[in-house]
What does this fold into?
Amino acid sequence: MTTLSIRLPDDMAERLKHIAKIRDISLNKLKFGLSVQVLAEDDAKQRFVAAQLRGNPKRALQLLDELDELGF
It folds into this structure.
């Protein structure tokens, strides 16, 4: 497993800490969840592009609908 350090403005870091506290999770778990969300969004985008390239517009539109359901 890899450890990543990020630099954030103090106000942003405090807001993230507050959100983690409200959700009753660690800051690490919050950042992990946000990372999973971004990776899922990127995976969906890649599947959409692949469906487009394969000339499968029905599947591409289905993937867009799935992204909408996820809030992307």
